[in-house]
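Data deposition worksheet. Section B asks for the primary sequence of the deposited chain exactly as it was used as input, without tags or linkers unless they were present during the calculation. Section C holds the resulting structure in token form. Section D is free text for depositor observations; keep each observation to a single sentence. Incomplete worksheets are returned to the depositor.
Section A, Depositor: J.P.
Section B:
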Amino acid sequence: MKTIFRNTHNEAHCKARTGVLSLGHGDVVTPAFMPVGTNGTVKGIYHDKVAEMGYNLILGNTFHLYLRPGLEVLESYGGLHKFSNWNGNILTDSGGFQIFSLPGLRKITKEGAAFQSPIDGSRHFFSPEKVVDIQKVIGSDIAMVLDWCTAPQIEYKDAVKAWKMTLDWAQRSLAHRNLLGDGFKGNLFGIIQGNFYKDLRKESAETICGMDFPGIAIGGLSVGEKPEVFNEFLAYTSQFLSEEKPRYVMGIGSPDYLLEAIENGIDIFDCVLATRMARNGTVFTDDGPLVLKRSFNEFDHGPISDDCSCTACTKYSRGYLRHMFKCNEMLGGMLATEHNLQYLHDLMIKARKAIEEDRFLSFKKEYLERYMSFRYKVCK
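Section C:
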């Protein structure tokens, strides 16, 4: 098995840890948040600015990139890195979540997933092997296996069906990756599923961790369940994860969820939340999310945050940012996007420092006491 993760410190009082993820386009220090670039671009911000902040791992979406621009275009450029002029690492998800989110436009068999394009209605088929091949063309530094992500409230028999299919697809994906040999440069991660049934989660985790994947992801969480259910199943599933492999929780991006994941020993995470919130005028602060369009910002001459180094905070007032959003000026969304990504990057730096000093639990407690107690007041 290829080793791509080096653990640098284990927190003395919980499962949090720091480490280094060694990938094809450089090292990534962990815990690390990944900005999402669904279509090969992080919405509302230049790649140069993303790199300047310190990010060296972003996420792309196999499903969307397969449909647009398509494999022929990507292959002509030599992959997504050159096509998008991003010199850092790229993780691509398998497209499974998007396929299974298509209402009435897909059919699942043991061979894979047939679906209609939501763009033009054309028909396509993703097998586990094809998904690996697509990510090979993309040039993913981390590629994900095809998995079946289920809705949070389904019957046990349906969860078992999806769980078995995901395990079978994982085995086929790994076999195909091995068949490609040196032609596949990336690192293929397995995905744990099992819905919200602990016996399925346990067996999925033990089976996937026992396979020859260099990294492991937890899927099927943060899909609409209550926060306490998320916390319960994250903590339960994480106890079965391999110590020597990097751990990835898919689709989480709010500060409270990120810190919960870090406490449970998770290394990387991604979510569209930061950039989506920003485009709609909401920014992260230590006092909770701030809605810039609200009237109380109109005469506020201060920055979003006094200790943030982003362009919005060093050059513009809350009042001016509010003005841009009220006038639908795109610069407002761009500045808010930069701020939110800078905020999460800085939060990761603080979390790593707290882990290294064996005070992560107190750091998390103090941070969340402020963030959660003020978030609704600030948004009024």
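Section D:
Residues 278-379 form one domain.
Confidence is low (pLDDT under 50) at residues 376-380.
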